[in-house]
Amino acid sequence: MTLSDVLGVLEQLAPLSLAEPWDNVGLLVEPSRPHPIQTILLTNDLTMAVMEEAVDMSCDLIISYHPPLFRPFKRLVQKDWKQQLAIRALEAGIAVYSPHTSLDSVKGGINDWLIGGVGSGSVSVLHQAVSSAPVCHKLEFTVRNHEELNTVLAELKEREAGRTFKFNAARPDSDMYSVSMSCIDSELTGVVQILSKHLLACQSLNILPASKPPLPGCGQGRRSILDEPISVAAAVDRVKAHLGLSHVRLALGTQQTLESTVSTVAVCAGSGSSVLQGVKADLCITGEMSHHEVLDTVAAGTSVILCDHSNSERGFLSVLRERLAVHLPESVSIRLSQKDRDPLEVV
User: Fold this and answer.
1) Which of 75, 198, 202, 328 has the highest count of CB atoms within 10 angstroms of its CB?
2) Which of 169, 173, 160 is nearest to 139 (CA)?
3) Residues 262, 114 share a domain
4) Which pLDDT score, from 0 to 100, does residue 156 have?
5) Which residues are annotated as a binding site for a divalent metal cation?
6) Averaged pLDDT for residues 141-154
7) Same domain, 145 and 124
8) What is its main location (predicted)?
9) Are both 118 and 66 inside the same structural domain?
10) Cα–Cα distance between 292 and 298 in angstroms, integer?
């Protein structure tokens, strides 16, 4: 398969439009010489150890969950390890791609996988994603008669706005027409300028607030009402088993014990304090929180499980590998990095 083919599959699995505005996702390094994609390496973080692993296996594409290139560069030199990664990838002809928060947000993505490790339940999204389609405004106005209605519509069509709006014209008990129309955001100014030339239309114009439609099941963070409530201790055991960890960190909520009942769980993979802030749940699970964020959460009576940042994400790579295998031919080898690991360990 070509690189473009694989990128198309990745876009199907986790559309980049779902990524957070601050994120740096998608194709980050593209070699100048195109060649077939035969070996793909999956990693949570692209470190120098993982890069050398990729070079040794003659990898064609690295899919790194976290974007190794985030802040802009003014030069590519050997002093900075991330610049070294970019240079090494180009020298070896390896493309680098990062899905990051698009994979967090998508339905069936990392956060759904993470909350599924606690048990089945009724899952909802904490921060709803909305459609990336252009914002559509609804306008309501009145024209004096059928002649003016035709004039307004003709003027709109002259500037090609007619391609981007729909309208309804209702005639009440007088000669006047009440018009309701919609137009995309880029056309709004032009439409208003046209209507301003017609006194009654301008005076009666009402522009209703625009909003983008939600994308069901997509967005940052998840909250689950468990089908079968469990104890805090049982939740800890399930999280450790799901993530393949021998240890996690636990902060009990105020007046909570290991035997306290957990009926509602909220999760956010990685660093989830901003997403989980203020959420009503018996238990919050994330990779990391600051000391004071933990204090605020437990003071509200919510227990916290911290798994370390990448430990809350890495296990999903096996799921991603299976999904890619469904869409890619058997000739493409998809491997999990053996060098990728969380930089922190319990000693």
Assistant:
1) 198
2) 169
3) yes
4) 83
5) 66, 104, 309, 313
6) 89
7) no
8) cytoplasm
9) no
10) 10
